[in-house]
């Protein structure tokens, strides 16, 4: 469960204070799949970064699975990101000098997992994202769709309860984009991972249970795409 309460993110510019987010309040239930839409510069990535503990709000509070992010120190926040959240970005953000296997294993290594455990997790994840045999390849040797699947495998390594995806299909063609959306949908439905996905693409947003629209740092619409949101959430949680 994610609870964003009266959150603002303010940047001090020469021209004065700029509100990237203004008094934003949203809740996302456990196991929900939410799409965040809105024009460029409206605050979508800012919201995602705050939920994921990559950045702190100027005011307001954010709670994820009962953890109040404002109350964590730097070290605890790093641990929160590493263990609770899987991040997926538009440009994949794989480390180019590391192999696919090493990229996937990053968080496990940082958390001092044993070598055998790392190996078995990496093999399982490679098979989950249909990239068997690519362990020793470098990111530059893979297609965009394959790189994004490595990024998803990396995001899953620590068994996060939450996936935060910022335009995960933004750099992909239709077919690869659909594959990624399907994968996210399966993770949401079968593994019960909560997914919050920023997208510009109305079709991509259709995989979500609910669409939140942000404009100029303010949530302007928060509802599902017809039907009863509460029933959807309740069914999912049952
Ligand atoms: N470090 C910063 N300093 C000043 N302004 C910033 C900073 N980071 C973001 N902003 C501003 O905050 C606003 C929201 O940015 P954000 O990246 O959240 O937009 P977005 O909705 O994700 O846009 P896009 O769809 O283009 O990715 C923008 O106007 C941006 O210029
Ligand atoms: Mg953005």
Automatic annotation (TrEMBL):
**Residues in ABC transporter domain copies:** 2-238
Query: Domain of life, per the record?
Result: Bacteria
Q: Which UniProt keywords apply?
A: ATP-binding, Nucleotide-binding, Transport
Q: Which PANTHER family match?
A: IMPORT ATP-BINDING PROTEIN
Classification via InterPro entries: AAA+_ATPase, ABC_transporter-like_ATP-bd, ABC_transporter-like_CS, ABC_transpr_LolD-like, MacB-like_ATP-bd, P-loop_NTPase
* KW Nucleotide-binding (keyword) present: yes
The protein here is known as ABC transporter ATP-binding protein
Instruction: List the molecular function annotations (GO) for this entry.
Output: ATP binding
- Spell out the coiled coil positions from the record: none
Does the UniProt entry include the keyword Nucleotide-binding? yes
